[in-house]
Amino acid sequence: MGRLRVGVIGCGGAATGHAAAMASGSDFEIVGLAEPNPEHLDLFRTRVPMVAEVPAFKDAEEMFNGVELDAVTVVTPHTLHHPIVMSAIKANLHVLCEKPLTCVSGHARDIEAAADAAGVTVMVRYQRRFFSPYRYMREAIANGEIGELRSIMISCGQRWLRGTAGSWRQDPSLSGGGMLMDSGSHLADMLLWLVGRPVESVSALVDNAGSPVDINTAATVSFAGGVQGQFGVVGDLATTWMEHVIVSGSTGLLRYETEPQHPWRAGRVTHHRAGEVVQPLRLPEGPEIHAAWAATIRGEATNESPPAAGIAVAELSEAIYESARQGQTVRVGGR
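-> structure tokens emitted (335 positions)
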């Protein structure tokens, strides 16, 4: 199989990284763009000059009928993911979908079933699954290097309230939620991915801070086997970004933190074990997510961020919102 012919659905700011990575690599050839807003399309072509001559279409269906495709990447407002991904699967196309896969867990299950039936790859863009610090922590937990897992605390924050003012991200009909559904979705995935056990119950508080959508969230998450989770999302942070993880086991501790002064650089891992504290330097390198998607499509690798990840995050998000609405702990998944 040669280069995969891919279409980009949604040409806003978030799509820039997708397109630049694929256009500069050897796995994909971008052959179509789907974007209804001419101004967004012009700006996108300026930001990604490699696609300046690629044909554009007003929507996904028009692109499906206008060019030969093997795959699409979906970078639209959140509530549009489900119908577009289902339409792409119906067209027998592989999909890389921005997070969250869907805002509703039932929709994510629809996508999983349809992808399995069609034999196509649907990957969710939870790129932290490929980040070396998180891969190190997951391996350390799985290998028993901190003993029996006891608790995990994950917090993230962003100057999100100000940064998304006036955009679709604060329009519930398009976003499906606020900071939790947006940037917080990545860390919700990491909470679930690191623990690797079913969620049993959730108790949460949510503050909209004057916005139509959630801004700040604090949740206590109970996992099977007695593991306790604390999950915090701060959408009105005073600085650009923060990201902290503490994983506690019976014999060890893992910490991950980013530098607020350099928020987009990879953070550092500290491993407390056997009476010593180390900062491991040889962290397991994961593939770049677009390369991982291509390898999965070609049958050279397993899907490391499948629809099941989107289902789990949607279920947790629903439970957080429901607990906050009821003002009490809610059970998850009939457990």
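The first helix runs from residue 15 to 24.
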